[in-house]
Amino acid sequence: MGRQPCCDKFGVKKGPWTAEEDKKLVNFILTHGQCCWRAVPKLAGLRRCGKSCRLRWTNYLRPDLKRGLLNEAEEQLVIDLHARLGNRWSKIAARLPGRTDNEIKNHWNTHIKKKLIKMGIDPVTHEPLHKQANPEAAPCKNIKYDGDQQEIPNNNYAQASSFSSDSSSTTLTESSEPVSDDDPLMSYILSNTFLEDSTWDFHFPVMREEYCEFGMSSSEGIGDDYFGLGRFNDVDLSALDMSNKH
DNA sequence: AAACTCGACAACCGCCTGTGC
DNA sequence: CGCACAGGCGGTTGTCGAGTT
């Protein structure tokens, strides 16, 4: 007997979420917190798969999410982390407050990848593309983060004269240097100390400043508000524009 | 103005991992 | 140890708006 599907395939709605569905899901999580995702759709009155609910929450409805394009610093951090971690988007996302793995993955595939290729850098190996002709010159192929690995591949971004792909895109010229390990902060962020430090788990980032913006003390923002749900307390859900942009 | 193309991103799918029994 | 299950992850697809022809 095969494994049961994560949800009943029949009667399960697919496709873009409606504002009504979003509202139901948010209301449910506000009331009950994140419990068993499999049970969420039934309890929340949604005809959705539990997985779909979890994804919708983590990628779109979570109150601590940043919206909009990644800024220059974030983009550079993504590149550096990708060089170190590979396609481990969730690990990368954990280092970018308010960003989701899906968002970073999309941004990588639609923006960064193209920029790197234009710069002559292989987005997979982070090695110069012309080196790829020589298999021995691609030491980062199938790069794996083993926890002890500290080295970042050659800083090809510093060698590239410009990070610009077009006039509107981010540029990394002298005025916005590629982040290097010389920068103490970036050095720490990219270090294994940081990477392994659970106290910096940004998956549900609770940034004190952000909570202050919502009139909450920093202590209120942690603990019971682990998921940032506290922010919804003063928000009229009906006023939230949670409708899918599509 | 209509048809077509492309880019961005939300969402789905299938596999993997961790956990409890 | 093996099995079943839920949750998580990464790859891929689908959808829609903007831009172009």
From TrEMBL:
Identify the stretch(es) annotated as Disordered. Answer: 145-184
MF term (GO), any:
cis-regulatory region sequence-specific DNA binding
Q: Where is the composition biased (Low complexity)?
A: 161-176
Which Pfam families does the entry mention? Myb_DNA-binding
InterPro entries in the record, alphabetically?
A: Homeodomain-like_sf, Myb_dom, Myb_TF_plants, SANT/Myb
Q: Which UniProt keywords apply?
A: DNA-binding, Nucleus, Repeat, Transcription, Transcription regulation
**What residue stretches are annotated with the Myb-like domain?**
9-61, 62-112
Extent of Polar residues compositional bias? 151-160
The HTH myb-type domain, residue ranges: 9-61, 62-116
Write out the GO cellular component annotations: nucleus
First-listed, main subcellular location of the protein, grouped into a coarse class: nucleus
Its subcellular locations are: Nucleus
Q: Which domain of life is it from?
A: Eukaryota
Q: GO biological process: any one?
A: regulation of DNA-templated transcription
Q: What is this protein called?
A: MYB family protein
